[in-house]
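User: tokens in, sequence out, please.
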């Protein structure tokens, strides 16, 4: 009997095959949609509402360069929850505990480009930030 239970625990996960003509994502990624905002725009991200305020750091490796470190983006944000409003700092790749879950800065657009007239710098109004929220309950 123990062998039967063990074999059942190791069984492969069934493949997700949506019906033809549908564009549904697999169940694991159904909650992975990002909410996008620019500097000064407020967006609902799951439960909290998030407003990007200031880019504190953008050390991402330019897309046309080779780097030893991928870099990161640090962003000052205003987070509104049922408990109130707080200004916080969020960094790509580092989920931030908020209310009953975690807020993540999952995507930053556009990619940096080395060289050119801007010297690889992006104007604040051209940034677009993708946030996700994973509920802890």
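Assistant: Sequence out:
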């Amino acid at each position: 009997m123990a062998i039967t239970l063990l074999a059942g625990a190791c069984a492969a996960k069934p493949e997700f095959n949506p019906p033809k003509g549908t564009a549904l994502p697999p169940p694991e990624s159904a909650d992975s949609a990002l909410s996008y905002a620019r500097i000064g725009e407020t967006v609902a991200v799951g439960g909290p509402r998030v407003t990007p305020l200031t880019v504190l750091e953008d050390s991402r490796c330019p897309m046309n360069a080779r780097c030893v470190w991928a870099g990161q983006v640090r962003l000052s944000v205003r987070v509104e929850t049922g408990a109130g409003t707080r200004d916080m700092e969020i960094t790509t790749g580092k989920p931030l505990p908020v209310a009953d879950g975690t807020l993540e800065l999952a995507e930053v657009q556009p990619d940096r480009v080395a060289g050119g007239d801007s010297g690889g710098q992006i104007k604040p109004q051209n940034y677009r930030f993708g946030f996700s929220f994973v509920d802890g309950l």
